[in-house]
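Schema walk-through. Below, the input block comes first and the output block second. Nothing else is stored per chain. Lengths vary across the set, and this one has 136 residues.
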Amino acid sequence: MAADPTAHLTTTMPFCGTLKMRARSLDAAQVELELDWAEDLCTSNGLLHGGVIMALADSAGGACAAANLPKEAIGTSTIESKTNFLGAVRSGTVRAITRPLHVGGTTIVVETEIRDDRERLVAKTTQTQVVLRPKP
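--- output ---
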């Protein structure tokens, strides 16, 4: 893992810095990112916007896929993502915990749980990431 995982995250994915995401771990077996509820990230009634939750899940999924890339790969990109929302976030911190389900030569499939600061599951995302290779 990088000496400063948050700096590594925001350097490789600048959008994560825009949303003020923090990296707790960036390991091949598990990636953990978190972000704090903020009024400017909400939809009506002070609910954290679903797009923000999906961005957190997508970022964690991309980081997990990147940590599992074959040596000759140059990157990864989301080609499919499915999120189920199970609860609302009205305050506190949300944490994405991502683990690989399948690590192959052409695709990597990851699963992300989004939990609030009471450890309540608020969303679950499954993603397929394509392995990017240099052009011949």
